[in-house]
Design brief:
The complex is a heterodimer of chains A (314) and B (449).
Chain A: H1 10-17, H2 23-34, H3 39-51, H4 56-72, H5 78-102, E1 112-117, H6 124-137, E2 142-147, H7 154-165, E3 168-170, H8 178-192, E4 196-201, H9 209-222, E5 232-238, H10 244-256, E6 261-265, H11 275-283, E7 287-291, E8 299-301, H12 304-311
Parallel strand pairs in A: 1-4, 1-5, 2-3, 2-4, 5-6, 6-7
Antiparallel strand pairs in A: 7-8
Chain B: H1 2-18, H2 24-40, H3 45-59, H4 62-66, H5 70-86, E1 101-106, H6 113-126, E2 131-136, H7 143-153, E3 158-159, H8 167-180, E4 185-190, H9 198-211, E5 215-221, H10 228-239, E6 243-247, H11 257-264, E7 269-273, E8 281-283, H12 286-294, H13 299-309, H14 312-323, H15 329-341, H16 345-350, H17 355-358, H18 367-377, H19 381-385, H20 392-402, H21 406-424, H22 430-440
Parallel strand pairs in B: 1-4, 1-5, 2-3, 2-4, 5-6, 6-7
Antiparallel strand pairs in B: 7-8
Helix pairs in contact in B: 1-2, 1-5, 2-3, 3-5, 5-12, 6-7, 8-9, 10-11, 13-22, 15-18, 18-20, 20-21
The chains are: A alpha/beta (314), B alpha/beta (449).
The structure holds guanosine-5'-triphosphate (2 copies) and magnesium ion (2 copies).
Chain lengths: 314, 449
């Protein structure tokens, strides 16, 4: 059983329904009025796809798959057409989506070390507060490491989140060496017998080689305490992000050797976050969580069905 | 990439010409490439479609048909259309005669408002104004602290009220504070908010009403995708902001959001934010944005940055010494300082077209400069001026003093010698010529590929 099962889903619905109207509505309207796949239908689909930020190539690929399937598969009514369309989008996710259901943090290892990375201002620190809160709720002990030694008041911000979540934090306000703080955090977790460690890192643009080097060093230095950590590296992607999101994931995973999951934030806004479809089309890195607000309980498990539904909402 | 696009068109159009004439149908094939480029650059769906219509109409015109280089001509049409969409006007900040003249910064969460508030304050201070900052983000954990830290680092007062839960009240009192302390400009940092959050939008509206700003700047992340138009429009409808700031342009995003926003809100983009450090602020150049979108890299920005940050009199002195072969370690140290002033090496390199791709995998070790500096600083004055006296014992002492190894010291001295030799070949004015040619011929930067 995953501790994540304990997270309620109502909040997700609330968050997603704030995007009003409804994507599925739109497709069903589209389909109702036609119930057939013609050029007009396809061009309306293309509009929805491109507006979601899934990108030109991904959109083309899905649409051509829909066309192909429509040739062979019969769809009797709008409901079946609706399913056909949804299925084809879901396929991009499918391999990873199926993982989601069995996804478990598998906290056999102790401490279970999670490193959070991403470009500037996407919601790393906030997501850490939310994650810690959820781990804590399931009875795990959590230690947060403050390895953003650069941004003004980054320590203070993370400390407030740690307090809100009711978990402990390791920080060194005078340090300019993030790797040292990460090292101290893992050390402390080992001696305190902590279940989960979450390490915050400074926002950095993936094209800055020296900052990516710094990140690698954090990873290396932590491995001096336990060789095969971090157990998870989550990259945080802002739902408003355009096509650059793919580069972000590529570069971070190149530098670190792996990225094990995506946290998609700010889905409570009007942006669709379709960039994760593009990312999954190319890299199959599962989306693990979604951020749907600025409060501590605004974090949800990613559900591809729900997500696809929301794509079609206005 | 710009060249790529031209080639693509040449290819497609050659085929077409083989068929005798350019028709509506066969030109669609090349315009599909344009669509892809624009969507990959995050230009909004509706903007792209209108744009394609326009380019198509113009491309079907007579000249393209008969031109020997129809590909180039179409690229030119695209370039010109994009420039006209971006607008070319340069707009300065607006100030009122009141004391203080108020500037409010607004935008989505994490777009870079607080950082920009400090950048702008620093920038205005260098222009002779006397700014103050107001911390009106009462929501984000440690937001006030963040602004205070930034304000302190540039020696600019930050007005805040600890524990106050009414942002409008803070903004009001900040105006009084500025007036009493003879601060002629007040920059108000507000919380990040979603355009669909009515309550929060009302709050910022009330701040506007309370403070009567001369300028409201909409701060937007250049990595934003299709949603840029929704947000830009919603904020505009509510606040009628007077300018736009594009942040995080030091990344490798194309920044098509700029075009999308311009197409829907007719207000100027007043600044580009190009880094996390407080000096990383620039005026916005629309033409460069077009090159960036079409993939030409921001070569002109690079050259200008190199020109302004490189102290020209220093450079001239250096050239003189080089010519006379009197270049020593003190000069080397001065040079390292110059390069460091220009920002990180990687951020400079990222502005060059093709350079980031070419350097992929190769590592630029920024720390190397720190070590070089340490080594040189461990030399005596005499050693720095006369590199030839550096024998074994001296080298060992320098290694110990700088916390490096004898190998590193040897390596540096060898590199220094090589450099001296190489630079002898670098005659007077060569640097200037290099910069000039870069400016005129962006194509030559392809050597980086
Ligand atoms: N609406 C909304 N805002 C969010 C969400 N997640 C984070 N934010 C906001 O986004 C802003 C940036 O969040 P941070 O957690 O500081 O981002 P970060 O990635 O740690 O930023 P840096 O460390 O500066 O790179 C804050 O104002 C957060 O409140 C979300 O899911 N929805
Ligand atoms: N690389 C880069 N980073 C930037 C730039 N401007 C801001 N940042 C970084 O982006 C992150 C968010 O910046 P903030 O100034 O806190 O953003 P904000 O809009 O005030 O965020 P909220 O108050 O949470 O809405 C920080 O990590 C900044 O250092 C820029 O031009 N380039
Ligand atoms: Mg952070
Ligand atoms: Mg802020």
């Amino acid at each position: 059983m995953s501790f994540l099962d304990k997270i309620g889903f109502t909040k997700l619905k609330e968050g997603l329904s704030r995007t009003k109207g409804g994507l599925i509505d739109k497709v069903s309207r589209l389909i109702n009025s036609k119930a057939k796949i013609d050029d007009e239908f396809l061009s309306e689909l293309e509009e929805i796809f491109l507006l979601s930020d899934m990108g030109f190539d991904t959109s083309e690929k899905i649409i051509s798959n829909i066309k192909e399937r429509a040739k062979t598969d019969k769809y009797e009514n709008e409901k079946e057409l609706n399913k056909l369309v949804t299925d084809e989008i879901k396929k991009v996710f499918s391999e990873s989506a199926s993982e989601f259901k069995t996804f478990d943090f598998n906290i056999t290892k102790k401490p279970y070390v999670i490193m959070i990375v991403g470009v500037n201002g996407v919601g790393k620190t906030t997501s850490i507060g939310k994650l810690a809160y959820n781990f804590k709720k399931t009875g795990k002990t959590v230690l947060i490491g403050s390895a953003d030694t650069f941004r003004a008041a980054a320590n203070e911000q993370l400390e407030i989140w740690a307090n809100k979540a009711g978990v402990e934090i390791i920080q060194n306000p005078h340090s300019t060496d993030p790797a040292a703080v990460a090292f101290d955090t893992v050390k402390a977790a080992v001696s305190r017998n902590t279940d989960v460690v979450i390490v915050d890192t400074a926002g950095r643009l993936h094209n800055k080689l020296h900052l990516m080097e710094e990140l690698k060093k954090i990873q290396r230095v932590m491995q001096k305490v336990i060789p095969d950590i971090p157990n998870e590296i989550f990259i945080v992607i802002d739902a408003t992000t355009g096509q650059n999101g793919l580069n972000q994931v590529k570069e971070f995973s190149n530098a670190l050797g792996k990225v094990t999951g995506i946290i998609l934030t700010k889905l409570d806004g009007t942006a669709k976050g379709g960039i994760v479809i593009k990312i999954n089309n190319e890299m199959k890195i599962p989306v693990r969580f979604i951020g749907v607000g600025e409060q501590i309980d605004d974090l949800q498990i990613f559900e591809s069905e729900e997500f696809i539904k929301a794509l079609f909402e206005k | 990439m710009f060249e790529d696009l031209t080639h693509k068109f040449e290819g497609v159009l050659k085929k077409i010409r083989g068929q005798g004439k350019i028709t509506e149908k066969n030109i669609d094939e090349s315009l599909r490439e344009v669509r892809r480029v624009l969507f990959d650059a995050d230009v909004n769906y509706k903007v792209v479609n209108n744009f394609i219509q326009n380019v198509k109409a113009k491309s079907l015109g007579e000249q393209v048909l008969t031109s020997v280089t129809p590909g180039q001509l179409i690229v030119k049409i695209i370039n010109d259309e994009l420039i006209s969409l971006m607008g070319s006007e340069k707009a300065d900040l607006l100030f009122s005669d009141d004391i203080p003249s108020v500037i409010i910064l607004v935008g989505l969460q994490g777009s870079g408002k607080t950082t920009f508030a400090a950048k702008l304050a620093r920038h205005l201070k260098t222009k002779g104004r006397n700014p103050a900052l107001a911390a009106c983000d009462i929501y984000r954990p440690a937001a006030i602290e963040q602004l205070k830290v930034l304000g302190k680092s540039i020696d600019i007062p930050v007005f805040s009220i600890e524990g106050e839960r009414d942002a409008v009240k803070i903004s009001n009192q900040a105006v009084d504070f500025a007036r009493k302390n003879a601060r002629d400009t007040l920059i108000i940092d507000t919380a990040g908010r979603l355009a669909i959050d009515e309550q929060m939008m009302n709050e910022v509206s009330a701040i506007k009403k309370a403070t009567g700003p001369a300028e409201i700047l909409f701060i937007v992340d250049s990595m934003t995708g299709q949603d840029a138009v929704n947000t830009a429009k919603a904020f505009y409808d509510k606040l009628k902001y007077t300018g736009i700031v594009l942040t995080k342009l030091d990344g490798d995003t194309k920044g098509g959001a700029a075009i999308s926003i311009k197409s829907i809100v007719n207000e100027p983009i007043k600044f580009a934010s190009i880094g996390e450090k407080l000096e990383a602020i620039e005026p916005f150049y629309p033409e460069r944005m077009v090159s960036r979108i079409l993939g030409m890299g921001d070569i002109v920005s690079f050259v200008e940055k190199a020109q302004t940050e490189f102290d020209m009199t220093e450079t001239a002195k250096l050239e003189e010494k080089l010519r006379k072969n009197k270049f020593d370690f003190d000069d080397f140290l001065a040079q390292i300082k110059q390069v460091k002033k220009m920002g990180s090496i990687s951020s400079l390199v990222s502005m060059l077209p093709g350079a980031s791709a070419a350097l992929k995998g190769k590592e630029i070790d920024e720390k190397i400069f720190v070590r070089l500096e340490a080594i040189i600083l461990s030399m005596t004055k005499k050693e720095r001026a006369n590199p030839d006296i550096l024998n074994g014992t001296r080298r060992r002492r320098i290694a110990d003093g700088s916390g490096t190894s004898i190998q590193e010291v040897n390596k540096l001295i060898k590199q220094f010698d090589d450099m001296r030799k190489m630079m002898k070949g670098f005659n007077r004015g060569k640097m200037k010529n290099l910069l000039k040619s870069l400016k005129m011929n962006p194509g030559m930067m392809n050597q980086f590929k």
